[in-house]
């Protein structure tokens, strides 16, 4: 099977290559795609080396699958061209997420919406993915009314430039700035651009994408997203109000049995999820499970996941695996 990875030299693209290899996806020919400055370089994939090509050459080679992590502008331009050539595109940018004609998929939640004719499939925002994996099984049992979520997001979500800024600041080096302020020893309540309503685009992504993935526009959700000086994963404090009353023991049982979820919740032993636990893992870790004593039918959760893996690369590969299992590619 020919598999193109568009944006193969970036943080997420590199992670896609790693995940494809780890999960033994049946790649017979890898087509790494990147910008002109990277064309001609070689990328190792297992025992083999593959030359980085431009998008035109990749399209001409007609890959069965094209995994995209090249940004919104590139996706809007190139994804339709790959699809026209017969490729199934799984796109990690925000280009197609809210397009009503495109599916927005987290396999543990809504793989059932996929159909054989879907040629451009959207991968959700990293912070949305981990939240819906944790909340979906609870929504099925108790029905969510409202969610209040605050995120604590890794610098890797911004990219290499942000990682370099953090490392430079820790080493006392003056360098390029990915953020408008220092990130080391700091917390920035500002991810993506500010909108007219006072929220950032990242915050509104969580609202709109959650409703689409869960298939329920009645869910009320408000979000504050914060960048913090960590690498390895995003963390989220989630307060969720249900329509039905719940039993906390049953909540833990549901989470323990949920696909893709690891319950790590034993305060007496100081056991709770941290980004260090989630790094290089594909699961969504849930802990600090407790009733909100200020309001009826309301639960608090702490949710952590590796944003480059389950929040991006792994979710995209899981979508491809689902399509392959149905013989749709």
Give me the side-by-side strand order of the main sheet.
Answer: 2-1-5-6-8-7
Instruction: Round the mean pLDDT to the nearest integer and report it.
Output: 97
> What is the CATH homologous superfamily assignment of the largest domain?
Dihydrodipicolinate Reductase, domain 2
**How many strand segments?**
14
Q: Major β-sheet, in short?
A: 6 strands, parallel
CATH architecture of the largest domain: 2-Layer Sandwich
CATH topology of the largest domain: Dihydrodipicolinate Reductase, domain 2
The stretches of 5 or more residues where confidence is low (pLDDT under 50) are none
Round the Cα radius of gyration to an integer and report it. Answer: 20 Å
Order of helices and strands: EHEEEHEHEEHEHEHHEEHEHEEH
Characterize the quaternary organization of these chains. single chain
Number of helices: 10
Secondary structure class reads: alpha/beta
Head-to-tail CA distance between termini? 9 Å
Describe this structure in words.
By secondary structure, the chain is α/β, with parallel strands linked by helices. The chain has two domains: 2-124 and 312-325, NAD(P)-binding Rossmann-like Domain (Rossmann fold); 127-307, 2-Layer Sandwich (Dihydrodipicolinate Reductase, domain 2), CATH 3.30.360.10. It has helices at residues 11-22, 55-60, 72-84, 107-110, 126-142, 160-171, 201-214, 248-257, 275-278, 309-325; strands spanning 2-6, 29-33, 42-45, 48-51, 65-68, 88-91, 103-104, 120-122, 144-153, 220-227, 234-242, 261-263, 284-291, 298-305. A six-stranded parallel sheet has the order 2-1-5-6-8-7, with helices on both faces. A six-stranded mixed sheet has the order 10-9-11-14-13-12. A hairpin with a 6-residue loop joins strand 13 (284-291) and strand 14. It is globular and about 60 Å long. The termini are close together.
């Amino acid at each position: 099977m020919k598999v193109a990875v568009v944006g193969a030299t970036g943080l997420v693209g590199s992670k896609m290559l790693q995940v494809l290899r780890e999960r033994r996806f049946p790649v017979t020919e890898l087509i790494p795609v990147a910008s002109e400055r990277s064309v001609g370089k070689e990328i190792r994939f297992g025992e083999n080396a593959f030359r980085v090509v431009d998008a035109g050459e990749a399209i001409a080679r007609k890959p069965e699958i094209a995994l995209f992590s090249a940004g919104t502008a590139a996706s809007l331009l190139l994804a339709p061209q790959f699809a026209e050539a017969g490729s199934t595109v799984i796109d990690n940018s925000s280009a197609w997420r809210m397009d009503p004609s495109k599916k927005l998929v987290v396999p543990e939640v809504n793989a059932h919406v996929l159909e054989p004719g879907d040629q451009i499939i959207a991968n959700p925002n990293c912070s949305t993915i981990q939240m819906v994996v944790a909340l979906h099984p609870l929504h099925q049992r108790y029905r969510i009314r409202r969610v209040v979520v605050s995120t604590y997001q890794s610098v890797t979500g911004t990219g290499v430039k942000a990682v370099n800024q953090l490392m430079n600041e820790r080493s006392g080096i003056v360098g390029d700035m990915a953020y408008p302020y220092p990130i080391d020893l700091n917390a920035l309540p500002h991810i993506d651009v500010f909108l007219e309503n006072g929220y950032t685009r990242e915050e509104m992504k969580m609202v709109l994408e959650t409703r689409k993935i869960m298939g329920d526009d009645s869910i009320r959700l408000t979000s504050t997203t914060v960048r913090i000086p960590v690498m390895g994963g995003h963390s989220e404090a989630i307060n969720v109000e249900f329509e039905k009353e719940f039993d906390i023991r049953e909540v833990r049982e549901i989470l323990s049995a949920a696909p893709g979820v690891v319950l790590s919740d034993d305060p007496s032993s100081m056991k709770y999820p941290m980004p260090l636990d989630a790094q290089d893992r594909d699961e969504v870790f849930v802990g600090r499970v407790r009733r909100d004593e200020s309001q009826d039918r309301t639960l608090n959760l702490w949710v952590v996941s590796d944003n480059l893996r389950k929040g991006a690369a792994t979710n995209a590969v899981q979508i491809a695996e689902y399509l392959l299992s149905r013989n749709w590619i």
